[in-house]
Specification:
Helix content is about 45%, strand content about 15%. It is globular, with a radius of gyration of 14 Å.
Length: about 100
Amino acid sequence: MVIKRQNKPPQAAALRQILRRCSGLGREKAEEEGLPVDVPKGHFVVYVGKNRSRFIVPISYLDHPEFQGLLRQAEEEFGFEHHMGLTIPCDEVVFRSLTSALR
């Protein structure tokens, strides 16, 4: 059995870059660059659904396989190389249900 490797940059590196842009780390720099300052330390912003509703979620969600599945869907549909924020391609109700189960 041969395991096929993809020639994509590591997902972890892309996530770190997104988190730097979207998290509450480095507020002074965020203010200078026009990034959101209402995001608490240890959290990041995602946009969900057709209306791109904004959610602030804890970084700890990145450890959960269910949330990682959503990130893979986001990567497949939108990629991580855009400046529109991290968009999760699922219905808002589904996202709320998933995140409430992760708490």
